[in-house]
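Observation: inputs received (chain + 2-phosphoglycolic acid).
Thought: call the complex predictor directly.
Action: predict_structure
Action Input:
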Amino acid sequence: MNRRYRKTIIAGNWKMNKTATETKKFAEELKTMLPKAKWCDVVVCVPFVNIPAAIRAFKDMRVAIGAEDLFYEKSGAYTGEVSADMLKDLGVKYVIIGHSERRQYFGETDVTVNKKVLAALEVGLHPIICVGETLEQREMGITMELIALQTKAAFAGVPAEKARKCVIAYEPVWAIGTGKTATAEQANEVCNAIRATIRHLYGARVARSVTIQYGGSMNPANAAELLAQPDVDGGLIGGAALVPEKFTAIINAANQE
Ligand code: PGA
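Observation:
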């Protein structure tokens, strides 16, 4: 973390979990636990259908609501899809784009990720752009090249003043939902390389101000060590974000002065 230059953001990614009723219950429980200290921003990204319930339930809390995806077209004949305007109109602030599960199961590519980033920025949503290598790619020794490529592709056509509004999440695919966390050094090494790519694209000032999260089996036991790394500015948390006690413990780890 480096709060002097950029925000620390702890974001939950609920994936396909919880009903609207369970969303309300989670918010009520979290409310009793959230720390007073405000050193980090808290975001909860929920399934589309839970967004209205989440907006209502988290209204009086310092928690911003995010979506888990969007479609890049403005409107039209795209059955089943949800646009950036629809999210914005509901009061959504963040949107996860290019999560590895979307890349793996739903045909997301670097090209569609880029289109979605542009669509989100156009209406003022903050994209949380996910990048990360598979185990096979890590073992082949191409992690850094691949991450640089994914990052450059995601930012194609994004001007500097909008790049500052983006969050990047480094999520090694082999660490997601597996209980296998990257070591703090591995996480920092890649987050640092992502910042170098942003510096190359936009210069030092933008690179310094962009929040870069780590995601992949982050939990109360490993959060403090990961967040202590200079280039790890928060977390994108799946499993542990579904349990108010665990999510709060990670927020507390990010709230250390
Ligand atoms: P996990 O998921 O924390 O359950 O590993 C992280 C993510 O996929 O964003």
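Thought: report the result.
Final Answer: The beta strands are 9-13, 41-45, 63-67, 94-97, 126-131, 167-170, 211-215, 234-237. The mean pLDDT is 96.
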